[in-house]
């Protein structure tokens, strides 16, 4: 078979590992040929691709980012998009199937295309870990490691100056990054989109820690909405897809803490540093296993399905199951973390 791969949506460490394992498995096990579509769905729509021989993927598993580039191009909203045009492009270039590597938006497009007759399977990717039907997505572990390391550094400088340190991490709709990195770094308060918390409560936790001579660490996800607010803070315009560009809640929380408690406070926004760099060992292995399973799904002609992690096994699931809402942090997980807040 001649198979095309694409990476779409936000980038993250581990994308190249998926590409590598799919290509090597396909060539060695099935005698397949591979191409890589450039810039996500745009590459499929415009027939813009590169050949992916075996030598092109050597050593890729350790490299961050994606050699194919990415974009947020929608397969149906593009002027030349839609299943009919994409089917013509695939036929014109003798491409038998597509492996789409991406998050919710990418996989929603893949599901719709599969329903319309395009031979496509998916690989789940998001640092937010917000996709249902899979226990974890690759990129998440790397984001946690980066954020935890940054928070460890913030704590040492905070202790030196007896300041409250606030770290803003990614998490538009869910707080998995904030929860895991905050717990790993021993944060004294973790603020996530799924749970409204008043600033009075946050300040109480901060004062409890400060009164013991410690430097409080507060972790806040970019999509956190305080108890008395109506929506997430988004004062940075819009993304290309029309979504509000979040960010700034960490600075707002910092100013609130300092004003209400009188404790000198500083804020750090980690931003896209969480997406960059080389993947952790865990993410390299998970991404590699996803790529192998996705290639097998192509040969099973399991269109409209994706590889997923269940426990320690990589299984096949319908994309519809993965897209049935976002995987939010359960109340019991947040309650577990909250035991350690403040005192």
Q: How would you state the average pLDDT, rounded?
A: 93
The first-to-last residue Cα distance is: 60 Å
Query: Shape, please?
Result: elongated
Shape-level CATH architecture of the largest domain: 3-Layer(aba) Sandwich
Runs in which pLDDT lies below 50 for 5 or more consecutive residues are none
- The CATH class of the largest domain, by name, is Alpha Beta
Oligomeric organization of the protein chains: single chain
CATH topology of the largest domain: Rossmann fold
Strand order of the largest sheet: 3-2-1-4-5
Helical percentage:
25-40%
Percent range for β-strand residues: 15-25%
* Count of helix runs: 11
**Record field, number of beta strands:** 11
Order of helices and strands: EHEHEHEHEHEHEHEHEHEEHH
| Main sheet attributes: strand count, strand direction, barrel closure | 5 strands, mixed
Keywords:
Rossmann fold; four-stranded parallel beta sheet; alpha/beta; 11 strands; 343 residues; elongated
Describe the structure.
- The chain has 343 residues and is an alpha/beta fold.
- The protein has two domains: 2-138 and 279-322, 3-Layer(aba) Sandwich (Rossmann fold); 140-276, 3-Layer(aba) Sandwich (Rossmann fold).
- It contains eleven helices and eleven strands.
- The chain has helices at 15-30, 41-46, 83-92, 104-115, 140-161, 176-185, 199-211, 249-261, 281-299, 319-322, 331-338, and strands at residues 2-7, 33-37, 49-51, 97-102, 120-124, 164-169, 189-191, 217-221, 265-269, 305-310, 313-318.
- A five-stranded mixed sheet has the order 3-2-1-4-5, with helices on both faces.
- The protein starts with a strand and ends in a 5-residue tail after the last helix.
- The mean pLDDT is 93.
């Amino acid at each position: 078979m001649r198979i095309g791969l694409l990476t779409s949506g936000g980038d993250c460490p581990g994308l190249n590992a998926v590409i590598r394992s799919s290509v090597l498995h396909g060539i060695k096990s099935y005698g397949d040929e591979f191409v890589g579509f450039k810039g996500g769905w745009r590459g499929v729509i415009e027939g813009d691709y590169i050949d992916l021989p075996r030598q092109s993927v050597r050593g890729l598993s350790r490299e961050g980012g994606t050699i194919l580039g990415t974009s947020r191009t929608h397969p149906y909203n593009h002027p030349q998009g839609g299943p009919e045009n994409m089917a013509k492009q695939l036929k014109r270039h003798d491409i038998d199937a597509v492996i789409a590597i991406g998050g919710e938006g990418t996989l929603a497009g893949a599901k719709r295309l599969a329903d319309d007759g395009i031979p496509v399977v998916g690989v789940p990717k998001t640092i937010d870990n917000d996709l249902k039907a899979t226990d974890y997505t690759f990129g998440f572990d790397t984001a946690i490691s980066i954020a935890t390391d940054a928070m460890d550094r913030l704590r040492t400088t905070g202790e030196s100056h007896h300041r409250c340190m606030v770290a803003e991490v990614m998490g538009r709709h869910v707080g998995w990054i904030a929860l895991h990195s905050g717990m790993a770094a021993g944060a004294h308060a973790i603020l996530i989109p799924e749970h409204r918390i008043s600033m009075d409560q946050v300040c109480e936790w901060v004062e409890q820690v400060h009164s013991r001579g410690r430097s409080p660490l507060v972790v806040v996800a970019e999509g956190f909405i305080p108890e008395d607010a109506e929506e997430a803070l988004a004062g940075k315009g819009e993304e290309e897809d029309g979504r509000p560009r979040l960010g700034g809640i960490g600075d707002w929380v910092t100013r609130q803490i300092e004003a209400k408690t009188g404790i000198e406070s500083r804020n750090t926004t980690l931003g896209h540093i969480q997406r960059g760099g080389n993947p952790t060992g865990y993410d390299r292995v998970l991404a590699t296993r996803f790529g192998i399973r996705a290639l097998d799904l192509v040969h099973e002609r399991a269109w409209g399905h994706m590889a997923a992690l269940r426990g320690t096994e990589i299984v096949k699931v319908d994309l519809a199951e993965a897209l049935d809402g976002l995987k939010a942090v359960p109340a019991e997980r947040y309650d577990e973390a909250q035991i350690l807040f403040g005192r």
